[in-house]
Every structure is written in C-alpha cells, then in structure tokens.
C-alpha cells in the first residue's frame, strides 16, 4: 500500500511520520493545537502567537509504505532531538523522502519550498478554521474496542480484519466498513499510542563497523541502501524476495519467504502491533474485562511464597523442588511487570510519549520531548543485526525492578518421563493469580491437543485457547494460550509467562525465526521458562555461566533411576540388509525382551531401512507381529496405535518417534547408534522411551554400533550423571 | 534466548558443509517443494525444449514424477487429453486453438494455490517453464502448417483491480512475462477486467459460462496504439524498419495474438477475451485479419 508522509512541528520540535489516513492526523493535530491554545490563552505571550501553532508539511504523493518508513527513520536518525528552524527541517525532510523514495533530486532545486512536492498545513492559528473540532471523526468507544481487540497481537492487515470481524460489535462494524472505516480507526488508535502501525518488512539502517565509521563520514554512509527485515519473523535480507508489486507500484517490493505459510509479510504491507503496557492502561476497561472474575479476586493476596503455589499439585519431591526454583524466578517478574505499568507513571515506558500528548495538555517542553522521543521510537525498537534476541533481553534489563536477579530465562532440565507438564501448572497458576496471561508453546500439534483438556481441568475458571494451523479458536482471547510454535508469529508482547516446551526439538532446532517469535511473544521483563530433557550444548554453557537460571529434575515421576544404555558391537544395518543376515546377539536380546513381555522399539537411521529390516526380522522371528513406520508412512498414527495396543510387538522406526511417544513396558534397540543422524540429544531421547511406566521402571536400552563414538559416550554419561544426582538428593525410591 | 557461542571446530565444519552443498549441484533445493533432495534427470522433451538453466530441469525426483504432463491430445481445438464436448458444442469460437501443458490435478492445484493465493512468487519460474512447454508445442504445430508463422503479441488474462491490489500481482501476467522474455515475444496489456467473478472453483459449468458475460473489456486506447504500431511495422516507409527487420517490413497474413492464462476449464474465459478483442479490432480497422490462440498452464 501507499501512505502519506508528513513532517509535523510543534514549537521548533519536528518529527517525520507517515499515515494511512491523513484526515485522522489532521483532526488529531488540529485538536492538539486547539487544546494548547486554550491552555496558553490565559497567559499572554506578546507577539508570539505564530509560534503557538502546529505546522505540518505533507509530502504530496503517497509513497510506498517502506519508503515512507525509511524516510521517517532517516529523518529522525539525523535530526531527531534537535531544535530546528522550519526551513532546515523541511530541507532535511525533502532530502530524506527523496533518498528513501528513490526520487532523483533533479539538479538545483529550491528545497525551501519543497519544490512543490510538499503542502504546508497550519493548525491552531487564530481564525484558521476549526480544524475538525466538531467532527465526530472516529468514535472513542470504537477506537478503544479496536485497540483492546488488537492487544498483544502482531497482525497483518488481513489478519487484523479477520480478528476484528470476530470481535465485539464495535469491532465488527469497523471491519465491515472496509478500508475506509478501518484505516481512520487504526490511524487514530496509533496516534493515541494504543497500537503501533509498522511496516511488515521494515527498512533497517546498515550497521557500520567501527572502522567504517572512522573511514566513511556520515554523509557518505547515508547513500548506502538500507536493508530489510521481516518484523514478524525476524528474517533478514537472505530470506527476502523482491517482486513487482501492484499494491505499492514498486518494481522490487520485498516479501518474506521465511514466514510465508502464515500469510505474506510484505514491504508495503502493514503489521499492526497492538497495545503494550500503556495501551493496556489506557484501554483498561476493555482490555481487562477478559480476565475471569475468580482470578481477579485471587489477585488480592499477592505475595505468595513459591511453596504455597507449588504445594497443591501433588508433585514428587524432585518436581516440587524444581517448581519452587522456577517460581522464585517467575514471581518477581510477574510482580515487576504489573508494578511498573500501574504505579510507576513516571517511568520512561515506550508508550509514555503518546500518552502524555493525549492526556495531559502538557506544557511546551513535555510535548517537545515527547515528540522527539516518539520519533526516536521508530528506530529504537527495530531489532538490529545483532543476535535477534538480544534486543529483547536489553528491554528486559531496563524495565525490570533492580531487585530481580539478572537471568532472563529459566530452564527446567527434566529427564524424559519426569512429568514436565505437572511442574508447569503452579507457574501458570501464579501468572493467572497476578492477572497475567500465560502461553505454552510446543512444537507438535498433538501435544497441543493433549494439553488442552488437562489445562481446562486444572484451571476451570480460566479461558483456555488452543492454537494450531486450522484451529477454530484462531481469534479468541484467553488467559492460557496453548499454541504450536508457528502461531507465535501472530503475537507481540502479550504474555507475562511464556513456557517453551522441547526447545531443542525439530522446528526450534536451528530455526532462528522461531526463537525470535518466542522472544517477542512475552512482555518485556516477563518470565520465560524453557523445558527440555536435552538442552543444546550452547544453552548448557549459558547455564554454567549463570546467564540462564536452571533447575534440574534428575528423576522420573515414578522415582526409579533411568535405564542406562548398554553398548553392543554390531555391523551396520546396510551390511545386514545386503547379506540378509541378522547377528545372533541382536536376535538373542530381542527374543529375551519379547519373552519378558516387552514391546520393542527398533530405531534405525534411514527411512529406506525400516521396511526391509522389518521384513528381515519377520523371517528371523516367525510368529511375532512386526511393524515399520517413518515420516513417509501415511498410516503412521495407526501403526503407532497398533504398537501401543500390542498388535505389533516390534516397531522398526526412525527418529520420528524419538519424542512424545509413551508405550508402557517397552525396550529400546538403537541400531547404527554411531551414525551421524543420532546425536547425543536424540540418543538420550530414544533411550528415554524405555521404562516410563511405574509397573516396569527398568526397561532395557541397547546401543548397537560398529564403533563407539562421542555421542554415545556423552549420552550414557548424561544418563548416569542424572541418576547420580537423583541418588545424591535422595529422590530415588529406597530399593 | 542465549547468544550462541561459536566454537571454532563446529563452525569450520559447518562452513565446509555449506561449501560442499554449494559445489554439489544435486543438493540445490527443489524449486517447487524446497526440499534439498536429489534432483531428477529431466525428461528428454524438457531438455530439448527448455534452456539448460531452466528451473523445471532441477526438480527433485518426487516433484518431477508427479507433474501430470499432457502427452496425447484428443481435442484439436482446446488441447484436452480427453474428448471434449465443450468445443463440439461451441460453433462460433473466436479463438483457433488452445494448448495446455499439464492436467489440473491435485498437485497442480496445490502449486497454483501456493503461487496465486499464498503469494509464493518463486514458483513462477517452474510454472512458467511448464507454460513454456505448452507454448513450444503450439508453436511447433503451427509452424508445421505455416512455416513463416510468427507471433505479434502475447496477452495475459487480467485480474480485477481489487484483486490485483490485494494479491499484488496478476498470475497470468507473471507467467506470460517470463515466457515473453525467454521466447523474445512482445507482451501487450489490451484487456481490462471489469469486476471479479466468484471463485471459479465454486461454480457449476453453466454458471461459469454465464459469469464471463461482460467480465472483460478491451482497453480501447491500448488496442488503437497496438494496431497503429502493427500497421507501422507493416508499411515499408521507414528505412530503419527495413534494415532492422527485413522480414517484417511487408505484412503477410493475419495478426496472430496469443492469450495466456493459468487454467483452462471450459474455455469461457479465453473465449470471452478473444471475443471482446475481436470486436475491438473490428471497430478500429475492419479489414485487419486477427487470429487468436491460447496457451494455459493447466487443463482441467
């Protein structure tokens, strides 16, 4: 889309902005000028009347959204926070617009007059029309409802339309009115600081190295083209695809390939960030009505000890200890967030400037400062090219009370089968009791579906929303949200407590977009809990350095030690298949497991090995039903179910079943354990399939491999160290 | 999230891996499914028709095996692989013949949906390569009949202005643009779509035939300048034209126009486009002979 760029000046303080509905801005600034005139009307400033006015210079031609954003950011980069003459400000404005819009300066031009490209509008001059004073432009109720509906969301325009259409009647009316109703409402909400309108794929200033900064003076660096970054998923230039765009008229309008499955995020498309702390405070009545009454009551008694929350969930001693440790991390953060927003009005919150403009018809310096602050805003919270998550961390550091410890996240490192979900319940309860929103993000959809009824049972008073691709609750607001990780792209600073499950598993592993999404879904300074049985080494290192808080749960819920894998030498599976022969060792172990009544998982590296190996096993073990499955298997759920129901006694499979499958009474056979697809984490996870039930806690685990490698040794060492820790802490049942 | 640290050996190993991926062509991602799978050896007719670097030649085995190529044509008019009652019924068609590259089956439906509705514009390359195959076949067929045959312009079927704003592009125009660039043809926007019809896939055959009434209009100004350009080239009055294009100085035979669309279902869209253009050409210059042909990506 194309938007209108303008320069607005209040008493020599200028800022550059863009608008999707310029008439809304004109009304807004007209009212502002009116208010100021009333305040100053009593006081006599002899002969200074001209300066009381608010001056606006509008760039006549609408610009593509990203060009307008770039111009506004460029302008404030160079001139933000300075007091400027109108002529100087305008000259800079024209320059910025030309550079950003790719418009040739066209030789010696008279920039003072903007060369006819800009139009000057003055508000608040005596007798200069009642600029929109009595126009019932956008109804206040309506704007509040829209802002409340968008709170904590990161919505593309089409998503915002759907969201509003599914909302309360006031929102439905706006959505039904199409663009001509939506644009002024959004723009008005943005002017009031209730939502932020962003460029979905935003221009970013290229960061100069210290050397480059030294060698190239600022004016020369200015000429470099700005890079683009998707604000929804955090992807940079590498994932941008530039195509001609009919909506903005640009011949190379970038869109983000990385998050295409969630709707197209485009350079000229809007991304609407709803609310933020001030948005909440401002639209309080509407935003707060969502909280369940029972929870509001329980908010009265605030300072619970961690133990009080953890006590009533029937946890094992190890779970209890971890939950308490996590609670002592979570509680100050929940209190801190509320505290800073509700009582600490003077704190420099990111939404403060807009609020001060709106509510207090403030004295000159305040408006001046707030304008500059707001101008600086647009640059301040664009994550730079540093690791994406660090900007969030920085926010966290600044807005938290100083008493809170300095770790930004908390890892619950719980062995497979430790009962992670139960440990999370007290944390959620704590968040809800403070009136906060909680999020559980998990990689797999079946986990989302499984958690949903458990949470509804545990928190009957809370609204639980389940989100996944094709979910019917897509646009609902809830106290507890359970979502697959990709759904997180649609949130922005919404949740006080973010719980991320299996952060080392498939979609997270090596996917910076999901980490970005998870980081921005929580409010700044809120609590982030990570759950994992096998945290990646980089994270283990941060734990050791004290950058991440950590609680280990070294024992399963049934309080028996983890089965330690046994290493056995065996040729490669490919060789076995070529020779059509199975080694006696493997068959002996299998028969003995089958004889004791166990279900046998057989893990192999390659999908193409599953069926042939199953065939070979069928001939070697006549009379035993043997199945095979993999990610390419269309009937995978049925096969897994058949295995669980003991219709198959042996299941040959790949890493696809390394997590989340619980089959009571099972033994694990890992073939080609030295293969490169099985790393330490996946070996530990596969070993974790054995001995999960209380009735058969001592399952058997075998690593069959031609060589012993580091992954196997580390996996075994990790399991043994967990068992040692459990024993030391007295978590194990007396033998 | 923690800032990851970069131990030197894994980093080096990762870089080496990336280098290896770059060097081995077999691991470049499939242009359709984006999986870094092994690529299939392209079929002989693809290798013959497309340039070496065409993306369609780099499909993975899975994708290459599911492309439902139309190999035998049963209807000489619309290029359908099965007998075609629509063309028999139609007595006054304004287009001469249409050819499609593939059947409109589940996988093609999915690819086109990704391209059109989800906006994955990378798919334009393999899809336009498929369209190119249809064009090559049509071109060869015509050359067999008229050896001196040449194309005067390619006309993409337009989408409505609202949809263009919403989608950001016109799929037929994108496909046609790539075809034109490769085959050195002229692209001409001579049509306007007045409104957008209901989603075609939701309509019955009868409704579909009727819904195109008045759906398209010829862009009068564009048609006029197009005709004058045609006549300019045809009249041997400028020496420049003669020296540059000796074969085009004297116009023999009719103007041949090629309409491009993504899907051919009943032919009503192509027919409507051809009809309004024919009307418009007649009104400007009645003696001019115009022939309409069509290529589409898929034939349902």
Give the secondary structure arrangement, pairings included:
The complex is a heterodimer of chains A (735) and B (300).
Chain A: E1 2-10, E2 13-19, H1 22-41, E3 54-59, E4 63-64, H2 65-79, H3 86-101, E5 118-123, H4 140-150, E6 154-156, H5 157-165, H6 169-176, H7 179-191, E7 195-199, E8 201-204, H8 210-215, H9 218-221, E9 227-230, E10 240-243, E11 253-256, E12 270-274, H10 277-282, H11 284-288, H12 293-298, H13 306-311, H14 317-342, H15 352-359, H16 364-380, H17 388-399, E13 409-414, H18 420-433, E14 438-442, H19 445-458, E15 464-467, E16 480-484, E17 495-501, H20 512-521, E18 522-532, H21 537-545, E19 548-553, E20 566-569, H22 573-579, H23 584-595, E21 599-603, H24 607-620, E22 626-628, H25 636-644, E23 650-653, E24 666-670, H26 680-687, E25 701-705, H27 710-728
Parallel strand pairs in A: 13-18, 13-19, 14-16, 14-17, 15-16, 17-18, 20-25, 21-23, 21-24, 22-23, 24-25
Antiparallel strand pairs in A: 1-2, 1-3, 1-4, 3-5, 6-12, 7-12, 8-9, 10-11
Helix pairs in contact in A: 1-7, 2-3, 2-16, 4-7, 5-6, 6-7, 14-18, 15-16, 26-27
Chain B: H1 8-23, H2 44-49, H3 61-66, H4 85-89, E1 95-103, H5 106-116, H6 124-145, E2 153-156, H7 161-167, H8 171-183, E3 191-193, H9 205-211, E4 216-218, H10 220-234, H11 239-244, E5 255-264, H12 268-284, E6 290-299
Parallel strand pairs in B: 1-6, 2-5, 5-6
Antiparallel strand pairs in B: 3-4
List keywords for this structure.
heterodimer; A: 735 residues; alpha/beta; Rossmann fold; six-stranded parallel β-sheet; 41% helix; elongated; B: 300 residues; four-stranded parallel β-sheet; 12 helices; 44% helix
The CATH topology name of the largest domain in chain A reads Rossmann fold
- Quick one: how many beta strands of chain A? 25
Tally of individual domains of chain B: 1
Binned strand content of chain A = 15-25%
> What class do helices, strands and sheet pairing of chain B give?
alpha/beta
Radius of gyration of chain B: 22 Å
Query: Which two protein chains have the largest interface (Cβ within 8 Å of the partner's Cβ), and how many residues from each?
Result: A-B, 26 and 17 residues
Percent helix of chain B:
40-55%
State the CATH class of the largest domain in chain A.
Answer: Alpha Beta
- Series of secondary-structure elements of chain B, N-terminal to C-terminal: HHHHEHHEHHEHEHHEHE
Largest sheet of chain B: 4 strands, parallel
Straight-line distance between termini of chain B = 50 Å
How many alpha or pi helices of chain B? 12
Helix content of chain A: 40-55%
By CATH, the superfamily of the largest domain in chain A comes out as P-loop containing nucleotide triphosphate hydrolases
Helix count of chain A equals 27
Distance between the termini of chain A: 70 Å
Average pLDDT of chain A, rounded to a whole number, is 78
Instruction: Please give the number of β-strands of chain B.
Output: 6
